[in-house]
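Report of the visiting student (M.T.), summer placement. My assignment was to run the structure pipeline on a short list of targets and document each run. The first record concerns ABC transporter ATP-binding protein.
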Amino acid sequence: MIEINNLTKLYGSFKAVDNLSLTIDKGTVYGFVGANGAGKTTTFNMIATLLQPTSGDVVIAGKSIVNESHEVRKKIGYMPDFFGVYDQLKANEYLNFFGTSYQMTQAEIAKQIPVVLNLVNLIDKRYDYVDDLSRGMKQRLCLARTLMHDPEVLILDEPASGLDPRARVELRDVLISLKKMGKTIIISSHILPELAEICDEIGVLDNGKLIASGNIASIQQQLSADKTLIIQLISEVDHQETIQFFKEQQLSVERQANGQLHVHFTGSEQQQQQLLLEALRANLPIIGFMEDKKNLEDVFMAITKGGKLDERTE
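After the run finished, the structure tokens were exported:
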């Protein structure tokens, strides 16, 4: 559905997006995560045909953003990070305006407005002025406008930015519904747990480069070469022999309370398995052996170490 090929954007000698290549299958929800300035918005602006790449291309449903931008725009719905609404219009008038912009007929617009308002749970607000809506409602109305022409691909740049917890949940539920409808969705955020709830795959951007890509488990694995193994021992025995065993394997060991050891380990899963087998052969008093999985906040801190740009240039 979406093929990103060596996509690059230069501002002078600075690379805002650096040779990005990625394939996103039809019906996939793909999330871009990274710090402010990592290159997310620049990437989205190029995919949405609003910014010409310095080099490279993006092909959406067989159409090139470089050579067939007009055709690409028919297939995408773009929600920018600064969504913008027209306060002096009612919700249905606002959607009518965008339907006309998409060159829809009035009959098509009249049919589609209740459909998209139902999708974003705003049907009871269709005659309300936009200025009277809450921020979360305005954000969902902006999402509704991107759906007016029933696009195949949705490009959503920080759609939950600035929302309170309830509004975030409401928006998440809408996105889950769109996912079930088979829409291909590209979404960005600097909050990894926010994306983990709805995304099939995630790409990590750091200083314009895609440094990791895959599902959450594989992202954690790619970014977490240094593991901590939690070794649970029988509490009433002397632990010195066990500590000495791991030190002889050239591993750093920290003794914890409740008969626990934390062993720092950088090997593969196969090497981890071999370590456990050798510990059991040594008849050590081990009753538990597991890897301490980094939580999503830990992973995010590892991901975002490189975000240094001013947000305006992202």
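Residues 306-314 have pLDDT under 50 and may be disordered. Residues 2-222+306-313 form a domain with the Rossmann fold fold (CATH 3.40.50.300). I thank the supervising group for their guidance throughout the placement.
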